[in-house]
Structure formats: structure tokens, C-alpha cells
Amino acid sequence: PTALPMAHEPMLLLAVTEFVANSAAFAYFTAGALHRNISSNMLPRRFPLQLRTKSMGVFSPQLQERYPDQPMELHLSARQQPMLSCHPDALHGTLFGSAQAFVVLPNATRVPAFLLNIDANVTGKPTITGNRLGGTVSLTGLRGLPVLQVKRLETMLKFGLWLFGVPWANSECCPHPVP
After folding, report:
1. In terms of DSSP H, where are the helices of 96-165?
2. Can you tell me the distance from the alpha carbon of 55 to that of 118, in angstroms, rounded to the nearest whole number?
3. TM segments (predicted)?
């Protein structure tokens, strides 16, 4: 049990326990809601890694040779329920995900390109600025990708969270501005 601070002035106090966080993670995972399909047209043109075989040739030259400059899709999903722990200054989580990439052929057929299983430890520190929910996320550990540099993947994960996670949190958790 944690003692809540005494309020000396009007304030909003939000307390989340690990039970609540893990129950929500269980419910979302069980309902199949922890997946996202990302297509090449969803990423900004300035994003450093486009979902095209030409860009992915950095990781797999054979992909570019076999399917020259074709669009791709990335299917992200949880392999098992995320595990969350709450601390006074942050929310820590272990995510068990998979990323399956597909080449999209001109006839709209999807050809499997590769599958990555990624286990990641992340720390999130939520913030409220004005009437918007925000935060910072850092990757504290990664298993399953010995060939990729963690810093590059961390940058991509942060951008993905900024592009998809924070807007989703703002629309789902805070659909109306905080008065």
C-alpha cells in the first residue's frame, strides 16, 4: 500500500496499481486488441525507414533483389500478455511482441518476408501538459534481435510510439480536453 499525498490545493490525483494495469493488459491481450497493421502509406515520407523493399534492403538484400521497390506491410502483435509494474515515478513494462513483414504485390497479394520476435523492457513516464497526455518512453532491455543495434531500434520504437501510441492514448484515454 502507498500513502497518497495530502492535497493542499485543488488537484487531480491519479493512482494506478499494478493489479489495475495488469488486468487491463490481460483484457486487451485476451480480446486480441494488442495488434496493429502498418502500411507504407501510414508513415511520413520523412521517416528514415520506409516500408518498401528498397528501404528494407539494409536488413535483407535478398528482399530488394526478389521484389524490387515494392510496398510492404508490418503486422505488430503481442505474443503474450504484457507485464506491467507501477512505481511512483514511472510505469515499467515487459512486452512480448512479434513483427511480421509482408511484401504487397501489385495484385494486392501479401507475401511473407520475415518474422521477428521481440521481447522488450520499457519504462514510461507519463506527463500532462496543459490538457494533453504525453510522456517519455525509454527502452531498457531487448531480447530477440542480436543483429540489430539497440539504439537504432529504440529510436524507431520511440518514433512509433510518438506516431501511433501517444495519439491513441490521447484519443482513447483523454477524448475530451481536461478542464
Report:
1. 150-160
2. 21
3. 12-34
* Residue 93 cell numbers, joined: 513494462
Q: All domains of the chain, ordered by start, with CATH?
A: 18-171 (3.15.20.10)
Q: Which of 147, 49, 48, 56 minimizes the C-alpha distance to 104?
A: 56
Alpha helices for 42-149 (secondary structure H): 53-56, 61-66
Region of 144 (left: φ > 0; alpha: ψ -120 to 50; beta: rest) is: left
The helix/strand/coil state of 15 is coil
Along the 179 residues of the chain, how does pLDDT read in single tens digits?
Answer: 567 677 777 777 766 678 988 999 999 999 999 998 989 888 777 776 788 888 877 667 788 889 998 999 989 999 999 999 888 778 888 989 888 889 999 999 999 988 878 888 888 787 777 777 777 777 666 666 544 444 555 566 666 666 666 565 555 554 444 44
- β-strands 72-78, 83-87 pairing: unpaired
- pTM score: 0.67
Identity at 38, one-letter amino acid code: I
Q: Which three cell numbers stand for residue 165?
A: 501510441
CA distance 118 to 142: 7
E strands along the chain, which residues? 35-39, 72-78, 83-87, 90-104, 110-129, 132-143
